Fold this sequence. Notes:
With 337 residues, this protein is an alpha/beta fold. The protein has 12 helices and 13 strands. It has 3 domains: 10-101, Winged helix-like DNA-binding domain superfamily/Winged helix DNA-binding domain (Arc Repressor Mutant, subunit A, Orthogonal Bundle), CATH 1.10.10.10; 104-176 and 283-319, D-Maltodextrin-Binding Protein, domain 2 (3-Layer(aba) Sandwich); 178-282, 3-Layer(aba) Sandwich (D-Maltodextrin-Binding Protein, domain 2). Helix 2 packs across helix 4 (47-61), helix 3 (36-43) packs across helix 4 (47-61) and helix 6 runs parallel beside helix 11 (259-268). The termini are far apart.
Amino acid sequence: MRQRVDHGKSAREMQMSEIDVNDVAIFVRVIELSGFANVARERRVPTSTVSRAVSRLELALGVRLVQRTTRTMMPTDEGRLFYEDVAPALTVVRNAARGLEGAGGSPRGRLRVSAPHDVGATFLPPLIVEFAERHSLVTIELELSSRMVNLVEEGFDLAIRAGPLSESSLVSRRVGDIEWDLYGSAAYLREHGAPESLDSLDRHPCVLFRPRNGEVEWSLRGPDGNVSVRKVRGRVGADDFEFVRAAILAGGGIGLLPRMTACADTVSGQLVRVLPGYTQHSGALHIVYPSARQVPAKVALFADFIVDSFARLDLHNIPRRKQALWPPYSAVSQSEG
């Protein structure tokens, strides 16, 4: 018996009407992330689930969208054209959904953040607490690690990274510059005095970051330009800024610390900057996150919050200010000189 097609539709039209929008969205992410496995990790599903979704879409369209081999995946000409047509439409849908998510200031869900130990232990805690208080439906999970995590494969929403960025498909936003200064504890300086010049550092024990054979080299920028202080020696050293900071606070001597790491202790008076004419620049702090095409409201708002908070910091002038500037997002009084 011959099957009748309703309303005069052809079999091809019936087939086209069965396209699953979810399959289209998966195909778009396969192209954007260059592979089935990456999308599977992002969605936390088996790779076979992603492959079947693309196969269903190809069957519905009646064309092959991707060429698969054991090692590579490449879009066909038809697949490339289809992606160029549908990706902008999906972006519109995602942006609309993002607008609903953020309606009334209510982003929601888990936010996984990766950050270096020193930034996460000193600069971030008050900011994360403030953000969580503002957005009560967001749960923040912070992982402190010195390693470079793979955001997509390991399920992180964003990362805060210090220093130069490697080439990648991640979106990056500059937070600010990383400046290092020389510090000693108030108690140490009362007992031993402060160094009056770079040459006088020889008369002080130093707390070293990543020493080799008990010494390091400090590359500083001073009143007369760049200067290198070779063979800075010390009896205490470590590869972790938090330890270096704690050792300086314990009276171990003079040490070089990122300004943001020493910020709270400088405000409290426990750390004092010495040789203030000298500093070290070691690059910038960035926020990175995957694909700008689909940025959840919680990610966008958190990134904006961190960038804005850092911009309001007056790290350069903290040593001479009398009032507390911590937490770092506190506004600086306009009446100050």
